[in-house]
Amino acid sequence: MIKIGLITSPSSLKINDFSIKGAILGVEKNLKFSPLPRLWSLALATYLRESLPVVKVDIIDGSLIDFQDIIYRIRNEKFDIIGLSPLVINYKETLKIARFAKKCGAKIVLGGHYATALRREILQNRGPGSDDYCVDAVIQYDGEKAFYEYVAGKPSSKINNLVYRENNQIMENPVEILNLDELPAINYDLVNLNDYFVRQDPRFRRAITFVSQRGCLWAEKSKRCFFCSIQDKKLRLRSPEKVFREIKVLIKKYGIKTIHEVGDDFLGSKEWFGEFSDYFSGIKNKPSFKIEVRPSHIDFKTALAFKKMNIKYVTLGAESFSEQILSRFKKGLTPEINKRAVFLLAEAGLFPMPNIILGGPGENAKTLSETDLAIRTISEKISLTGGECGFSILIFRPDPGSLAWQEFLKKETKYKGKDSFSLIKSMKDWNRDFCKADLKKINLARNRMISFIRRKNRDTLANCSDKLF
Predict the structure, then answer these.
(1) pLDDT average, residue stretch 416-437
(2) C-alpha radius of gyration, the chain, whole number
(3) 279: part of which helix (H) or strand (E)?
(4) Mean pLDDT, all residues of the chain
(5) Does residue 149 sit in helix, strand or coil?
(6) Dihedral sign of CA atoms 240, 242, 248, 251 in order
(7) Which of 24, 31, 317, 405 lies in disulfide reach of 463, CB 3.0 to 4.6 Å?
(8) Coil, strand, or helix at residue 169?
(9) Stretch(es) of the chain classified as CATH 3.80.30.20
(10) pLDDT for the residue numbered 281
(11) φ, ψ at 221 (rounded to 5°)
């Protein structure tokens, strides 16, 4: 029997690791939706079990157990193949796990957005024949079919989406974009959901991740947002009826109360949303939903439709309230569009959560002040009406795979060819090269914004997370 381990690495980056001269770059989580089941590992495991029933698959989540426990599991389970999906914040831990697993005799396959963006660098630096050989292959874009074929022993040259190293050459096979409706429904029995439920905030317990779509229409039609590192090539939608039926099963089987939809823009297709919401119109005891939406898609009718569906938490890709910064971010938005979306959602009784990114290209005292003033105005008005609103206030970082990363490499050539680097150092270098306000000023502005939000929302929830987890 083939033994497979699908491992999400923990991250050693904590709040204090983001401190620069006493200014906190880290986060506080008053509105905590995590931990949540990892969809990447569930998707791969589900496809494997459907297509190759004899395989044994273990899903190991670093948000539930620590690094040493993961090492213990690898040593004792003796996996044949291990799949890892690293992020910029846990890549160093991913490599430590890969090195140890390689010593234990496992083949190592990486996938996900980070690995896709740096696939050639990873294989050059960590692939067969390198001084730090701990990665055998990378799967770019959709991984379900490719990983199954790799596990089943199909020749590497015949596996679409596989990138590998052979005879000291990096080989990239053709990319295959899968039909989402042909993929099996996620089998949540492959993890113990109670391990997640008991760790979740009591207000949001029995929450799971779910996906009804992949990709982003804005990225498909334009060159995508400046900071976006998501590698999906186009927007793909699952059948509204199929999604509805799966959610009904989840509610009945697991008593799910909150669904965290991980799609990048839930309103990428309003036609799709209309069909989906129609299916839910007659359902009682609906779960609450948390979704992500472009502010430009929000109007009064949509806000009411969200309310009717019990979509309660809406993350808005606002990013800034400065015209200059929004233009540099290539968002296709204005400050007024962003404000209007927040007010419409709050008026409908929802909980809007605009994402704000400080430290983008050209950030200066004036642009910081514009965003600060907008946050104060929004908080004041919503507070007066008894509504709720949260802000996710982040510090900009150039992530591999983004347009920002491409511009960053033009100035900071020392990062070229690297698959592993200091996140803190890259943020400092970015700030020096691209911002007119230094990190200390940016962090002071961020802290002022957070303090004001807390004062205005003392009896509500001010969400100041940074999407690292």
Answers:
(1) 96
(2) 22
(3) helix 270-280
(4) 90
(5) helix
(6) negative
(7) 31
(8) strand
(9) 180-456
(10) 79
(11) -85, -25
| Local confidence band at 458 (pLDDT 50, 70, 90 cut-offs) | low
Superfamily (CATH H level) for 180-456 = tm_1862 like domain (3.80.30.20)
Cα–Cα distance, 153 to 447 (Å, whole number): 53
Q: How many CB atoms lie within 10 A of CB 275?
A: 16
pLDDT at 388 over 90: no
457: pLDDT strictly greater than 70: no
Element (H, E) at 97: helix 91-103
- Lowest mean pLDDT segment, chosen from 23-32, 290-299, 416-425: 23-32
pLDDT 10s digits, 156-183: 999 999 999 999 899 999 999 999 999 9
Q: Is the pLDDT of residue 85 over 80?
A: yes
How many whole angstroms separate alpha carbon 34 and alpha carbon 317? Answer: 20
The pTM of this model reads: 0.91
Q: Is 417 left (phi over 0), alpha (psi -120 to 50) or beta?
A: left
Nearest by Cα to 336 from 354, 315, 322, 356: 322
Q: What residues contact residue 154 under an 8 Å CB cut-off, 6+ apart? A: none
Query: Under 8 Å CB-to-CB from 114, ≥6 apart: which residues?
Result: 85, 86, 87, 88, 91, 229, 399, 400, 401
Q: Are 463 and 30 in contact (CB under 8 A)?
A: yes
Distance CA 163, CA 123 (A): 8
Cα three-residue angle 400-425-137, rounded to 5 degrees: 35
| 400's tokens | 């591999």
The HSE-up count of residue 354 (CA atoms within 13 Å, CB side) is 29
Q: What is the pLDDT of residues 45-73, one digit of tens each?
A: 999 999 998 899 999 999 999 999 999 99
What are the helix (H) ranges across 332-438?
A: 335-347, 365-384, 403-411, 423-434
Hey, what long-range contacts does 148-152 have (CB within 8 A, 24 or more apart)? 148/44, 148/47, 148/48, 148/51, 148/52, 150/81, 150/109, 151/2, 151/4, 151/48, 151/52, 151/55, 151/81, 152/51, 152/52
Domain with CATH 3.40.50.280 in the chain: 3-15+37-172
The pLDDT tens digits of the residues spanning 120-166 come to 999 999 999 999 999 999 999 999 999 999 999 999 999 999 999 99
Is 128 in a helix, a strand, or coil? coil
Q: What is the pLDDT of residue 33?
A: 61
Judged against a pLDDT cut of 80, whether residue 423 lies above it is answered with yes
